């Protein structure tokens, strides 16, 4: 590190790439986190010196490697015995089938009977288990010596073993050829020698393919870790961008909104004035089309005459108002005379009407 407990920006990124991507489990650490917590950066470097790529301590990783080696050895040994045991069982099953279909020779019967008897005694002997000092009574009270008495004669066992090796070899060869054809169908048309050569290389081919699969899985795991880191980085960048946009909106939105409102108001004002002018133009156009010069002159004459008549009426109304004012000065006596005059006028009109009707009757 550059200065004791502290790291520079370049060293922080290098620490993220070397330590956090291999020794430590996947974590969403950023370079800013390491720069803000320098002691944590030193702790990560110290831990990486005592851990392997899987996150285990070096001592535990060494013990684990040794344990896996022993497990593989025991597993290989067990698989050998298991394969041999299953092959022998298949031979016996084939023997039971052949008894029903074909006539076997005496040697074949002797071979399978000896093999079955030897296998049965061996399995029962294994069931009894090893002897112990404080042991419980054995199964059915049997001892290994009791079972060993049931073993076939030693000469038959030797003869059976010699033939068994050939039978097992032949059966295993068929299984290997079947596996080869399953793995590589093109090998079905090859000769036996060519198949044997391919079978000899089949283990290496399978190991190579297994290693390729493991490498692909490792690459996939690395890609997944890288994808998670990129996703976390992109998420943080997006959050920062959103925060920046929010701040910009809060700082500049009101100012921009006021300017926008002012511009909109000016635009609406100008548009309103334009519409008013258009309406006035249309109104004047209609008036100019409706009232020609002759019609305007006639209307002017009519207006002058109407104004003269109105003036005369106003003069008469003024005279009448003066007369009424004069009569109002006379008071109640004038009202009585007006009523009497009205009655006399009404009586006179009635008599005149009666006289006219009388004249009409004698004509």
UniProtKB/TrEMBL annotation:
Gene Ontology MF terms in the entry: microtubule minus-end binding
Record keywords: Coiled coil
Coiled-coil intervals, chain numbering: 203-230
A GO cellular component entry from the record: mitotic spindle microtubule
Signal sequence, start to end: none
One Pfam family in the UniProt entry: HAUS4
Gene Ontology biological process terms in this record: centrosome cycle; spindle assembly
Protein name (record): HAUS augmin like complex subunit 4
């Amino acid at each position: 590190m550059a200065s004791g407990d502290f790291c520079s920006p370049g060293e922080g990124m290098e620490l993220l790439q070397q330590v956090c991507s291999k020794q430590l489990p996947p974590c969403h650490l950023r370079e800013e986190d390491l720069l803000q917590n320098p002691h944590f950066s030193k702790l990560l470097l110290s831990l990486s010196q005592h851990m392997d790529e899987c996150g285990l301590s070096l001592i535990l990783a060494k013990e684990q490697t040794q344990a896996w080696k022993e497990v593989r050895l025991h597993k290989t040994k067990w698989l050998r015995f298991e394969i041999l045991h299953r092959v022998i069982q298949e031979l016996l099953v084939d023997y039971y089938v052949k008894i029903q279909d074909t006539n076997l020779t005496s040697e074949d019967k002797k071979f399978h009977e000896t093999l079955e008897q030897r296998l049965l005694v061996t399995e029962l002997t294994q069931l009894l288990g090893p002897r112990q000092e404080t042991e419980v009574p054995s199964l059915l009270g049997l001892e290994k010596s009791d079972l060993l008495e049931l073993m076939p004669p030693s000469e038959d066992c030797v003869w059976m073993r010699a033939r068994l090796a050939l039978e097992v070899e032949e059966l295993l060869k068929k299984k290997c050829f079947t596996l080869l054809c399953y793995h590589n169908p093109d090998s079905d048309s090859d000769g036996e020698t060519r198949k044997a050569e391919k079978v000899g290389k089949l283990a290496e081919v399978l190991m190579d393919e297994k290693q390729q699969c493991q490498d692909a899985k490792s690459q996939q795991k690395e890609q997944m870790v890288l994808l998670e880191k990129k996703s976390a980085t992109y998420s943080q960048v997006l959050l920062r961008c959103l925060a920046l946009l929010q701040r910009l909106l809060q700082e500049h939105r009101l100012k921009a909104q006021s300017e926008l409102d002012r511009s909109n108001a000016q635009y609406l004002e100008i548009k309103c004035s334009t519409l008013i002018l258009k309406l006035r133009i249309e109104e004047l156009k209609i008036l100019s089309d409706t009232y020609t010069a002759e019609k305007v002159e006639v209307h002017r004459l009519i207006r002058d005459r109407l104004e003269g008549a109105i003036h005369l009426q106003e003069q008469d109304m003024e005279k009448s108002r003066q007369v009424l004012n004069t009569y109002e000065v006379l008071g109640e006596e004038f009202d009585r005379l007006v009523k009497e005059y009205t009655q006399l006028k009404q009586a006179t009109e009635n008599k005149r009407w009666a006289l006219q009707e009388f004249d009409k009757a004698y004509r």
